[in-house]
Amino acid sequence: MKALLVIDVQNGILGVRDFQEELSLIEHIIKDFKHSNNPIIFVRHFDQNEESPLHRGASGSELFSGLKDYADYIIEKKSPSAFYQTTLSSLLEELAVEQLFITGFNTEYCCMFTAISAYDRGYNVTFIENATGTVNNGETYEMGDLDIRDFVGTVLHWSEAIEVLDFEEYEKIYNPSYKK
């Protein structure tokens, strides 16, 4: 069985910049999974720092209202990996999931760490590069024109362990006949 992970689509992240393109792609993928009755698992991050917009109880920690009703399951986490000290592994085992599709935020932390952790646990992993987004940019890492999504996607692709696709490739491979 396939499952979709929608990572950290929370108000505190979405309020940083315009993520409409990413949200639109994520919603298309969610609808594909709904159409095929495959589980959609939202992952919600909570920071320990009380000043963080993702601190438990802060409005920024809430899941984005435009997508949250699609969630079949919600996993809460406190680290970049959705597997670390969460119930995700047991849920995936219970659902007999073999392949995980990764979408969401922040590409270079939570999406990447979760993808690698999933691979380490024996899952087939598909990382949909342009259905991820980040609040950071090249300046954050003192690398000027760094395209973070492309960089992370390239590293994961070169590993030959994780399938990295853009949305259009995902549609051709996994959903060639379903029309929105």
From TrEMBL:
InterPro entries: Isochorismatase-like_dom, Isochorismatase-like_hydrls, Isochorismatase-like_sf
Domain Isochorismatase-like: 3-155
Keywords: Hydrolase
Domain of life: Bacteria
PANTHER family: ISOCHORISMATASE (PTHR43540:SF14), PEROXYUREIDOACRYLATE/UREIDOACRYLATE AMIDOHYDROLASE-RELATED (PTHR43540)
Family: Belongs to the isochorismatase family.
Protein's name according to its UniProt entry: Isochorismatase family protein
Organism: Ornithinibacillus xuwenensis
